[in-house]
Amino acid sequence: MPAAALKPPLPTQSTAKRPVLLDLPYAPLEKRPLPPGRPREWYVAHNRRLKAMRLAIALLDSGVHTPNQARNETIRDTAELIGVHPPSDTTCHMVRAFMRYSR
User: What percent of the chain has pLDDT over 70?
Assistant: First the structure.
């Protein structure tokens, strides 16, 4: 039997006795310009989806696992914690939708 099979796995958010602290964001990747020639609404929607996905990941990492736990205040507090501008109500709704459909 391999030695790796004998070691117990490291605790994760779901198996730890206490909540695992949220890692602060790592250095962001180098940004590339978005493709030119699209309507402005496309860029707004694209950036909103990216922001909502970042917030959904941060919420899941911090122990908020269901959409009904993610109230607007919780989402906005998380945005402040990870250094993102406070999201609008529409973005908060999108965060809950990402959490709902990720299962």
Answer: 70
Task: Tell me if the pTM is above 0.70.
Answer: no
Kindly report, residue by residue over 7-51, the tens digit of the pLDDT: 665 555 555 566 555 565 556 668 788 889 999 999 999 999 999
Q: What is the 3-state secondary structure (H, E, C) of 60-98?
A: HHCCCCCHHHCCHHHHHHHHHHHCCCCCCHHHHHHHHHH
Tokens, residue 40: 């402005």
How far is it, in rounded angstroms, from Cα 61 to Cα 77? 14
How far, in Å, CA of 89 to CA of 57, rounded? 18
Provide CB contacts within 8 A for 59, sequence distance 6+.
Answer: 70, 74, 75, 78, 95, 99
